[in-house]
Amino acid sequence: MAMTSPETMAIVGALLALWLAVAGWAIVRGIMMQRAAAFSARKATQLAALLDCSPSLPLIVRSDGRIEGPGGIAQLFGLETLPATISGLANGGPVVIEPAGMDQLMQEIVAAQRTSKSFAIVLKSVTGGKALRVRGVPAPPQLNSSGSALLWITDASDSEAKANQLRQQREDAIAAFEAISSLIEAAPFPMWFRDSELRLALVNQAYVRSAEADSAQDVVARQVELVEPIAGQSAQAAAQAAHDSAESVSRFIPVTIAGSRRMMQVVDVPIADVGVAGYAIDRQELEDARSDFRRFSEARRSMLDQMSAAVAEFAPDRSLRFANRPFLRLFLLDEEWAATAPPFERLLDRLRDNSRTPEVRDFPGWRAERRGWFAATGMIEESWLLRDGTHLRAVAQPAPDGGLLLIFEDRTEQIRLASARDTLLRVRTATFDNLFEAVAVFAPDGKLNLWNQRFRRLWDVSEEFLVGHPRIDALLDKIGPRLEDPRQQSVLRQMIVGATGERQQRSGRIGFKGGQQFDFAAIPLPDGNALFTLIDVTDSRKIERALRDRAEALEAADRVKTDFLSRISYELRTPLTSIGGFAEMLNGGYAGDLPDAAKDYVKAILSSTEALGQQIDTVLDLAQSEAGTMPLERRPIALGALLRDAVAAAQPDAKAAGVELVTDIRVGLGQIDGDAKRLRQVVDHMISHAISAFGNAQHQPEGGRRVLVHGDGNSSSAQLVVSDNGQGSESSGTQAVAMALARQLVQAHDGRFDLVRRPSEGSMTAVFLPR
């Protein structure tokens, strides 16, 4: 074998070195590629993991409908494995997509494959519990998918539900805003909104009407303020104050609306940093109502002060709000103390201190019970008996606001009157049963209501029968047999019916079979009933007959007396005239001169004859007056002149008796119409009676014997008075007859004659004559 040459060896060595270098390079490259493949595998695993946990999963849809994508897409559609075609996603599992959504998806995929148009839709399950958001784009060339579409599918169930909720809230908010806007626009009171610069931005129609503007735009454009500046503060200043304090500002100010001044409550409400809203409420009616209520309260308190009942009003906190004057007087309270609004319990303590509460053993317990009046559900009434015997009716009325109204009525007098009334009723019943008359009361329907025992005994009916309150027909049938004339039953029936129905009073007389006579009467009563009375007049009839007979006898005797007086006056006057005539002849000297003693005797005869003639005239006048046959003339008489003439005529007799006649004739005496002659007789008898009152000469009163003749009068009558300071004893027979005649003459003038005697003090006669 031939030996290799060095060159050959060098070539071989070079080749081997090259091979070794290539082998080393290949090994290094293999290692590097292995490392790159491992890195790529790790990256692919990481990308797959990222895709599986990504909210959006990719899905490639080939032009023939085949699909490629991660397994997570199957889970989105409720499938275990990803189907081969896109149509398999529609109804391959429990999540059934709405057909309309799948149809739209298929149309959008075709459009994207053909026109490279992107799209985005939301697929919803039929049950509404699932929502998938699909965004489609043409597949990029790197996916080697010509005519393919890349879909990104995201589970949007939660976000879609949230979006639906937000959409609903938005719709609700829009509807609420529109409703609030409509409400604000339709509000009857002005409302407005100011922007951040406190300029008017929005106003409602009520604002426009109140500001008398054309429209809301006109108000905003001209910045027409509804509220005028008050005390230097403008509407913007009030809004600025509300904005700075971040609190609502309310104020009551007068506002002129449609030419009328109204009291408005204006409120500014800050709205964060957006602006300030405001509204104005018409409080004029409220102010008027408050004013009316104040006037009503004042009138009510004034009225309560005028009431006789004691009234107190308490507030919900049980403090005294008001007490009228009768309350203060009744319970002995000071007005200043009551004005301090004491609590209810303290008031009761003060009443106890004033002895104006009932006597109770446990006063704290009693007070606690009264405190419960505030929580009562209805009116409470009770009686208080105070220590001084006062009876009070207490009425407690809880008020709707939690307060209390107390009313106290003094029933003391009523209780006394009730007691007196009960006593009176018992007395009346006893009197009613013991009346001499038979009494019964019939109702308008003819029933017997009341009767006394005299009625029952008179008609001889039983108590049991009357207790049944029989009608008038049944009663008359029962008592008819006792009547003397049975036909009188109808008379009694008509009488009672007329008194109850026709309201006419009737009376009459009936007779019983025993001879008794009764007067009856039916009298209508104010309550519609009729009172029937029956009185036995049998004895009175007999007495009446006897009195009639006696009157006739007295009339005959009076005639005999008159004839006797006329005859005796004639028989007395004839010899008296003869005696007087012969005495005057003797006194005139027809029988010659008489001795002095004889002249005195003749004068005594003449004086006695004159006195006797006057007495005879007085007796005859008295007889005529009593018989009513004395003639009287009616002419005007000046009483003053009559008194003066009478006093002048009586002066000689008064002087002889040592009596001083004093006259006191006033201007008011005046004149009357009457018989001057007869009145002169009256005055003469009065003066003569006064002069004769001194009796014998031994009686000398202090100050001397004195007779006063006084005359005075008024527009209705004249007064003549004669008084003396004599003995005041009984007059003689002659003076008694004269006084009797004077009385008769005064009475004939429709006057009054008074005679007053006081022993050792004197007497007085007074005559009162009507004008």
Automatic annotation (TrEMBL):
CDD domains in the record: HisKA
EC annotation from Swiss-Prot or TrEMBL: 2.7.13.3
A Pfam family matched in the record: HisKA
GO molecular function, one term: phosphorelay sensor kinase activity
Organism per entry: Sphingomonas lacunae
InterPro entries: HATPase_C_sf, His_kinase_dom, HisK_dim/P_dom, HisK_dim/P_sf, PAS, PAS-like_dom_sf, Sensor_HK_Regulatory
Protein name: histidine kinase
PANTHER family: HISTIDINE KINASE 1, TWO-COMPONENT HISTIDINE KINASE
Keywords of this entry: Kinase, Transferase, Two-component regulatory system
Reactions this protein catalyses: ATP + protein L-histidine = ADP + protein N-phospho-L-histidine
Domain Histidine kinase: 567-771
Gene3D superfamilies in UniProt: 1.10.287.130, Histidine kinase-like ATPase, C-terminal domain, PAS domain
